[in-house]
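Task card 7
Instruction: Convert sequence to structure tokens.
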Amino acid sequence: MSPIRIPENYEPPTPAEELTVRSADGSRLHVEVHGRPGAPTVVLAHGWTCSTAFWAPVIRELSDRYRVVAYDQRGHGHSEIPPSRVRYSTRALAEDLSAVLARTVPAGERAVLAGHSMGGMTIMAAGGRPEVAERTAAAVLISTGSSELVAELTVVPPGVRPAGLRRFLHRQLLRSRLPLGPVTPLSRAALKYATLGPTSPAGQVEATARIVHACPTAVRANWAAVLDRLDVRAGLARLAAPTAVVVGTDDRLTPPVLARRIVAELTDPQGMLLLPGVGHMSPLERPAEVAAEIHRMATEYLVGPHPGGGSVGAVPAPAAAADPTAAGAAAAGAGAGASAAGSAAGAGAGAAGGADAAADPTDERTAVA
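Output:
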């Protein structure tokens, strides 16, 4: 059987710069800088068992108009593995983000922060930290939750009852210390079921499997213990920056119910984007739409000089989000016509300047499938 090929845009791009950042407890963090020097900055925080490679297709979407910073969470990718379990905590996640921002976002400047899964939890955990807030123009929380993850998991089929048994089984799956070993047809199928939408093509599944299997078993298990008891609602309540939320309709790990709770608790909610048929790995499954939502927030809130003159709002939209009329239709969930679908599909977040989309910041918007 010939090996499954990963699509070219899923191959990690070569960073313009690589940095080593020390967190508050001395942990070494690997940081990559992509894109245009001097351009507005976007900072990307990946999720559990992933690495900077997870963001590859989103980085490619954004790097021609932004300076894109991505870093490996502690224990992941090229970052240092914590020497003890006490160094795995939401506080550590917040301190790591603070250290990365201090090194990559100069004093007096701000960035848009985007976090997927545990990366979103990182941003929420850092809510209210002055050193983070002063460098944050806006945030995008992608496929994530603030608490009660085990109670809301839908990996175990709904027919399994009672609720207590479901929670027990989900906890066993989450905290398993079994090594994943090499990527196999069985592991691909299991990962696709648990983390991706049902129509995800083989290349996406393969990219996901290679990233997840690369995470050390102990790191996976120690972070799972943190996720099991996760509660970053206090930080979420102090997250003052304008914040958008993104979730796939078929996300089994952080289902839409968790996204709706986040929107309800945000100080400055900027809407929730639903991605039809998408699972937990939304930046890999629908990178154009995720990048378009990041771009929407950057265009709206990342104010400052632009290298080409004017303000950040002058940064050109991603090609997939270039038609504001189509984007507005997608944002309204009205089902754009076939002639607009090609433009709207990449901008499901819709419309940096669409008046209809801005009417209610808590509105749910549905991307064109």
